[in-house]
Amino acid sequence: MKQYTLLIGGEPVATSHHAAVANPSNGEIVGYMPLGSEADLDQAVAAATRAFKSWSRTSSEKRAAACRAVAEKINEHAEELAQLLTREQGKPLNGLGSRFEIGGALAWTRHTAELDLPIEVLQDDNEGRVELYRKPMGVVGSITPWNWPVMIACWHIVPAVRAGNTVVIKPSPLTPLSTIRLVEIINEVLPPGVVNVVTGENSIGAALSAHPGIAKMTFTGSTETGRKVMASAVATLKRLTLELGGNDAGIVLPDADPKAIIEGLFWGAFINNGQTCAALKRLYVHDSLYDEVCNGLADYASRIAVGDGLDEASILGPVQNEMQFNKVRELVDDARAHGGRILTGGVPMDRPGYFYPITLVADVDHGVRLVDEEQFGPALPIIRYSDIDEVIARANQNPAGLGGSVWSSDAEKAKRYALQLECGSVWINKHGTIQPNAPFGGVKQSGIGVEFGTEGLKEFTTIQTVLS
Length: 468
Ligand code: NAD
Prior knowledge:
Layout: E1 6-8, E2 11-13, E3 18-22, E4 29-34, H1 38-55, H2 60-76, H3 78-89, H4 98-113, E5 120-125, E6 128-136, E7 139-143, H5 149-162, E8 166-170, H6 177-187, E9 195-197, H7 202-210, E10 216-220, H8 223-233, E11 239-243, E12 248-252, H9 258-270, E13 280-286, H10 290-302, H11 322-337, E14 341-344, E15 359-362, H12 369-372, E16 379-385, H13 388-395, E17 403-407, H14 411-418, E18 425-428, E19 447-448, H15 453-458, E20 461-467
Parallel strand pairs: 7-8, 7-10, 8-9, 10-11, 12-13, 12-17, 13-16, 15-16, 17-18
Antiparallel strand pairs: 1-2, 3-4, 5-6, 6-20, 11-19, 14-15
Helix pairs in contact: 2-4, 3-4, 3-6, 4-5, 7-8, 9-10
Nicotinamide-adenine-dinucleotide (NAD) binds next to helix 7 and helix 8.
């Protein structure tokens, strides 16, 4: 089985220690992740610092062309990346799985290549001229999670590089191989040292976020780890983009048409088995539609094939890892013990791998862990309500504020309520449909800053104002 290497300054760097990466569908070893040391990390930061000197001075056109070339490389290797991603992450090749994720990585890379931050002239008159420049920051440290590892790596790497920075990325130890391969592919078209990858245990993430050679951290992961990254960044006042956990509420108004919304509700919640930051994680349904929506979702769930990710027929796969599998099981058991009515699922599937079925839990409310905490798995609590203003206020009680949605036959009315939700993105009659031109980020404890589009690109720059 293949032993992967780090990639530093454009060269493979072998490590003396490795860790096995296993397929969550069946436990088979996919490959061996190199266990990078802090000395490897220092080397990577040094290589990225050297590369920054020339990369930061390249023209915007040249960097746009380089990002386009990265997109073409991803396209060329799309199927290879999708197969590797399925084997280490578990998500199916089909449905909203690996091929979809690589397609997303490609779409974001292409879109970001075309963004630009030209000089802005703020004043030009007899009093003087004021110009605003957006300059690259230096070496960007990137830390990514295991749920959408390739797409999120592109969300970090491509805008950083497009803006003239260089990168050291540390992927999750649970899904490192597809990121190593991505960085290898990227290095076929970018100069050495512009993008480097150091894999290893969580301690490498901590060392990266504390490293004095890193100008900015871009982190996607849990709120708990985000706090640690923020604390590590204090000593050197690193700039931060933190995309953290969510507990998105979806609110079905009494005038919604259940038949029209079931599919959207289902995929809003169960995309990637619910292991998605902006998945619908708490569903509030008006009393008058409650039974119809519950039954419609259970019926829809019964038609979804859950199986090995490499099986072309699978639409959903296993939960990615044991910790997450145990968490989902624990939260569902707890909800059941507190009066939750299991409409479908509710016990692990009887087969090897971390298979937990699509689970719908009715008749739960605030105060139950499945509602209050981020489950990050295939289990959706469905909460009954009767007063719309009250349910908006209750939905806002959660400390998370990533996404939210309102479902109604009257889009204008839905928007009025949507604007009252305390979250960074809000959807009408859909949920979680992010796109590369729409800034995305959390409010409250779901993060700091935004990604995507020009607003996201700006986060990889500092302002220099020139007054003459
Ligand atoms: P996690 O916080 O456990 O790990 C994320 C990354 O942080 C991994 O690479 C890990 O190795 C690293 N890490 C762990 N300890 C660290 C430390 N002390 N210092 C620095 N880095 C450290 O998260 P996860 O379980 O991989 O991902 C799931 C979480 O990510 C969920 O909460 C989900 O909502 C969130 N998420 C958010 C977004 C978003 O855009 N807001 C996107 C995807 C996932």
